[in-house]
């Protein structure tokens, strides 16, 4: 007897994430890991959380914070988000905001909302592998989101139709994307919106890293650009996914979605059916901590992470062989590395762990078709500058031993 | 432009829950509400939570409790659950346990795990409407779980095949089921397991209310019975869903699933893709509070809720007209009421809110086909004995005015 015979066909697309499996191997202290994608816990606003939690479990408050709450989310938190979105050029009301268990849950719900099997999702090549994981449960076909490519919307739509569905959305991270660290300029943002209009599809804007800009000039989110075009969020096709995981702390699992009311309304029903609500206490303390110190805390993170980014870029410059190239992000948590053609990031990782005890994520995991094996992702948020330089020197030695020049 | 045109076909089955919509109307203090299904917040173990949270955000702990954690859940909590399951006759290991965001999320994941569109789910008639809501997203057909009925497994399987799929699971709550409060006896439990063997399907055992027994003798969970039959959880088709929502507090959203390893393994992948993990801090404090006081706290709840149940039963006895009947539960949070044939619980609720300010849930919401309109569900966990008696008297006056005899 095995229940696995009873599993739905959608489970065929659910594979273990290479990153999550990798993270389990990295618990040895002598390893220098650039593999994670996680914030430095030493930078959590711990004392503010401690104060907020003490208030949340006081005799006056606990009857509410430990109790069930509405599926759409805690109103003061939704109000804080409305104020935050306004600073990004996005005018909305609490009815446009759904609180989710991190922005990962928003991606799951958006797959569930839009994708019938064989529908097409346009994604970056590479893209966030957690987005692929979330969408895979709904059995989409993937096509390449690349407004600058030769293939125009007509061809993309025709291919989607030939595959038995239609294009439902484009998914992207416009700022310091995971895994590349690359930011879309204004023309690229406009081009995505133009293409979305032509294809009549939704745009899912994953803004997980947006607040973490360390240099250069910020571009408005796609949703802000679309509101400026159309005058009203209710007329917009962009769905904005935000997260407190990279700015305050990930362990409370609090994120949000901003979109037109019919989209939020349907997602509230979905959330009610899927987990009732995001944990009440987590929303209450997040609202209080955000209210107290969001801006100054993010300013501190920018300074610390920005220095780590510069340290890693400088170290790569000093130690990498000629045939290796990398991105120069202005924010986020990642640098994306290209090895010479024919090299294999996964094999290099095996060698790196075995010989020099340095870790990273092989890049092919971030491609919907598993291609581009000669890439890798480096995280700089978890290590101080000295460790970064030591780790990059280790990586250079691994490359040298592997004959990468 | 409307994105609703792009929604997946599964959204057609996602409707607003009558209960959740109702709860929004009940914020007026003069209403006596038997509509909710929620624990009394005055009984939350607030001080234990306060102590556990203070420890969880201490300088030593916060780097872990506010950080990402493994998708399968916090190991000390899974270990506590292993010990708890042993007291129910269920031998398992932490690898058999997945922590979910409440048992509602377990139901969503189990729908996702098993149901291809047109597959059949066997459910009680009535059943927990949140289970129907969770499963609906995966477009099942429903058939009636009733091992004592004339239709045998062969007929049920043939009907499922004719509908274009196969039977995938039976869903049930064996103890003090929502909405009826009824408990299955040993023979009924055995009969479900027999039928599951014949049909070769999974059994989803929703144990949300299991710990809340106020009188009578406990029967073993179906999973315990199946383990006794087969000698090993790994050979079992029963999947046990537990929750801390009714015993400790619902606002932290912590529940669990116990099943054979291949099921848990697939669900861990699903959780990783859908929301990464249940909030770390919530798991840590739940583990500590459960460790400290679970048994004594549940003993106190049994005493308080048991007295409320007896008060409501006595009050119904005193005030209900002859044509009305109801269940006599031995635990849980609900009593199920039958009005005379031809009466309509929804219309009675309208009248009850308008005239006597007393609320309940019309029973048809709990039937997959919306039938049995002459039923209603009464909750007794949220009101003290005096309020219960006053509310039942109000209800009796509403019935009298409606001509119910």
Automatic annotation (TrEMBL), chains A, B:
Q: Where is the Aminotransferase class I/classII large domain?
A: 48-395
Recorded GO molecular functions are: pyridoxal phosphate binding; transaminase activity
- A biological process term (GO) from this entry: alpha-amino acid metabolic process
Identify which cofactors the protein needs according to its UniProt entry.
Answer: pyridoxal 5'-phosphate
Query: What keywords are assigned to this protein?
Result: Aminotransferase, Pyridoxal phosphate, Transferase
Indicate the transmembrane segments per the record.
none
| Cross-referenced Pfam families | Aminotran_1_2 (PF00155)
List, alphabetically, the InterPro entries matched: Aminotransferase_I/II_large (IPR004839), Class-I_PLP-dep_aminotransf (IPR050859), PyrdxlP-dep_Trfase (IPR015424), PyrdxlP-dep_Trfase_major (IPR015421), PyrdxlP-dep_Trfase_small (IPR015422)
Q: What is this protein called?
A: PLP-dependent aminotransferase family protein
Q: Which organism is it from?
A: Paenirhodobacter ferrireducens
